[in-house]
Amino acid sequence: MTTLRVFIAGFLTVAMLHLLVTCSQNDSGVNPDPDPGVNVELIHQGAQKIEDAFRAADPAAVRAVMTEEAQAQYSGDLESIKARMPEFADAIATRQLGAYSECYAEYHYTAGSRTLSFALAAQDDGDWKLVRF
Quick one: DSSP state of residue 24? Predict the structure, then answer.
């Protein structure tokens, strides 16, 4: 019985923390206090490489612009979405940089009537690669 109470208390605590730290719908989606030390041009270059790889509909090129973690998660599915890659490239061409920091950046884009996002992570060599889409 005590274990159940502790579990419920922990669950409620995590739920409350989640509500406190997540973005509301009224957030602008723009980095409110951008770090002037972040080279935004490198972020944009990484996003362009991602768009180009998807536009080429080449799974190997797409893998090359992904982080190792993203490769592990998505590599098995790239062949099956090959035909739709140019469509995704068209959608992310509408991208706008939202929040970013020295190690993470998130773009928002429009696909049909939906606003979606994809994220990049800074690599040790200075490149920005796809984390999720």
Answer: P
AA letter at 37: G
Give the total residue count for the chain.
133
Structural domains in the chain? 38-132 (3.10.450)
Tokens of 89: 């490239």
pTM, two decimals, is 0.73
The values of phi and psi at residue 69, to 5°, are -65, -40
Rounded distance between C-alpha atoms, residue 43 and residue 41, angstroms: 5
Residue 54 three-state SS: helix
Instruction: Give tens-digit pLDDT for 86-104.
Output: 999 999 999 999 999 999 9
Q: DSSP character for 66?
A: B
Secondary element (H or E) of residue 125: none
| Sign of the torsion angle spanned by Cα atoms 6, 12, 17, 18 | positive
